[in-house]
Task: structure prediction
Amino acid sequence: MRSSIAGAVALGVMMFVGTSAMAEAPGDPKAVKSENGKYFDAKGDPTYNVGADGAVDWYTFSGYRRYHAECHVCHGPNGGGSTYAPALKESVKRFNYAEFAGIVIGGRQNGNSVMPAFADNKNAVCYIDDLYVYLRALSTGAVQPGRPEKKEPAPEAFKKAEADCMAAK
Result:
């Protein structure tokens, strides 16, 4: 049975994706706003922030962890793709946040290529922003392949959201 949080997220994303947002490119990933340690671009989509010392924001680091726990098996290490799944660090250059989230949550078939739905996978759904942020950072070269060496500490807002999402039924 689908968890209520995953169902709510999937419904919200699908409703948003059904609007004209599907044709809209992701835009400039430059962070213009920060709330509780999470960064947003001019369109309001989640994005990364890399400090002058090379430290990545917590959400980018979390995205690295989630990507390598769930996505790299098919999509290759560091978003580079494989013989049967595309390079996600290239896909996020074409897909805006809503499209990306819709595909991860709802799945997609493109010819013989099938992306399974991850709506019931809390390690994907609870961290959808983080996955997108990490892949955006890779796609622009803001972070290099591999584990980021420095990171900001986890914000309290992250810890609360994580606990709430993981506890949801």
